[in-house]
Amino acid sequence: MTMMHTLTPTAEPATNVDDVARLVGPDGGRIAHPDLDPWVADIDADALRSLYRDMAIVRRIDTEGVALQRQGQLGLWAPCQGQEATQVGTARAFRSDDFVFPSYREIGVNFVRGAVASDFVLAWRGEAHSTFNPYDINTATPQIIIGAQALHAVGYAMGITFDGADQVAGAYFGDGATSQGDVNEAMVFASSFRAPVVFVCTNNQWAISEPVSVQAKFPIAGRAPGFGIPSLRVDGNDVLACLAAMRWAVDHARTGGGPAFIEAVTYRMGPHTTSDDPTRYRDKDEVERWRQRDPLARIEALLRAEDAFSDDFAREVADESDRWGADVRSACLSARTRPAIEVFDDVYAEPHAGLEIQRGQFAAYLDGFAAEDAAQGGAR
Amino acid sequence: MTQLTMAKSINEGLRRAMADDPKVLVLGEDIGKLGGVFRVTDGLLDQFGAARVIDTPLAESGIMGAAVGLAFRGYRPVVEIQFDGFVYPAFDQIVCQVAKLHYRTRGNVQMPITIRIPWAGGVGAAEHHSESPEAYFVHTAGLRVVAVSNPQDANVMLRQAIASNDPVVYFEPKRLYHTKGEVDLDLDLADAPPMGLARVAREGSDVTLLTYGAQVATAMDAATAAEDDGISIEVIDLRSISPVDYRTVAASVRKTGRVVVTHEAAREAGVGAELIASVTEQCFNHLEAAPVRVTGHDIPYPPAKLEKHHLPDLDRILDAVDRVLDRPHSLSGPEWSSPESGRAATVNGGML
Fold it and tell me: Where is the Dehydrogenase E1 component domain (chain A) (predicted)?
């Protein structure tokens, strides 16, 4: 199946959020789109409900994360409310053997990739820098350095090419990251080596307090063609459009077309992280406008219009979401901090004489508390 | 055994590593048809093809970040940074990604990346082409840092670095590229001294002179010169500066009781500072004198016509040897003046 090379606008400002490819309108009405429609021809009511279910669970995990942080159980949380369609829709387009490099906010991507309850909280709780083994779910540890992972995805994709495999690598980053050198270098490398990589730019309008207008005067998707990379600007709150666009992009990469770029235009409804106060830099009206474009309400409306959203289904999803919320909470509260000596583990893959000496000295120091710990019935 | 320049010896080491392991690939700027600006990768493109000898765009962070992705995929990338001063754009990827991914993923992801850096001065180069950035990398947990001083080590330690499952920053002194030496290209890595082991380059009994890289040759010259004055200097080529082989260092310090460290990198918070702090902690009771550093000055690397004043030479080393032996020395005054001496104002405006 072919696809237009680009739907990239050429003159619109980057802040125009309506100049996007869309399959479901904010009111839930299905919109025909000749290029995107064929990519989701198989999505029936069941499949649409499944997308809705994933988004609902992701929202519930996110809500639980914020609550746990407010209750002092997590040091920090980076909410993704409002971005569920972008994350679930795009992530669903990958095969399980593709390899995805997410940023720290990709809760929905990690959920789709197979992360378990503890994976969502233990890093923010400070128990480990990452919890899942990347090779178990073919997903890299969420990246905190802005845009660094775009290059990792390209390197991985180059390796796919060298191996003669038909996998695809994916890189997720935000609008702010497109200002970083690494993202631009990643596009140069990807294009030059025709690497099978898909870049997903989640344009959520804000990089902490910096609006996208500080990062871009031109639609971000419009940059990719300059690197020789076809791109598509899509409504990031429309899960069907995200899935369709991403299926095109992934297919393009998998079938030898080289890299592709998706800009999903969405909105971060909450703060950048729980340490942030968005009321200082954006007004209520803007948030309210975006609330009218809610990705879950939109699919619910579409399904209701088709008489495919029953109370039973709503209850099932609510119950399943609550189970996820409870599991996340339980994983957080039952976390056991590892023994102190383990801070030295895995710094190196092979023994390092200098660190071995420090480990020995610290172990001896800890041993000095052994009697005290035993008396208190615990261990350090 | 065969006589080879260091550049050719490294080239042969790369060739052997690539032939032995199909997962080894090299990437960098101008390394393909040109064979690298120092010709270190000469002939590799013809032998191994463009999928294993990769001419990259001119973007150091891009090279390093792509290497991270390749390592994720199971490759063992050998990255060439064209010149020492060009490593800084890749610094973020090296210290935040290459160094930390194994730790971050609790050992699930390995980063067996070798970062080759043509290194340091003495070749009359332009600005940014003579830097000694080793301390930045030594300070970063997760990296191993080695510096070679002769063609044999250059060959074997490179193969060891590539075989290591840890990332290794591998410094190759530019001013030794054309120095020849005996190299056993078929040396089995299992029979070679481990990469982390220091080498006693010259035995001596009066002073331990610690150094690495191109400075080893200067240290050896100083030891030869000192012999005329009846001073016996033990020269230790550290080879690895993270980790440092303190067993070898301490054995020498216990024997001589006197320590001089020399490197051409700047002094403040440099490798010499670390060496002396560790030696002082571990061997204080064996020391007969305060250890002394002979280093590059704490200045930006000077223009080529002035670099000889920056690089520690034989005389500055001998001056330091005189100092630790409490012999009269004329080249340098006291390092720190006391407030009463009237020279305090020269130190930190007297506010020290």
Answer: 53-322
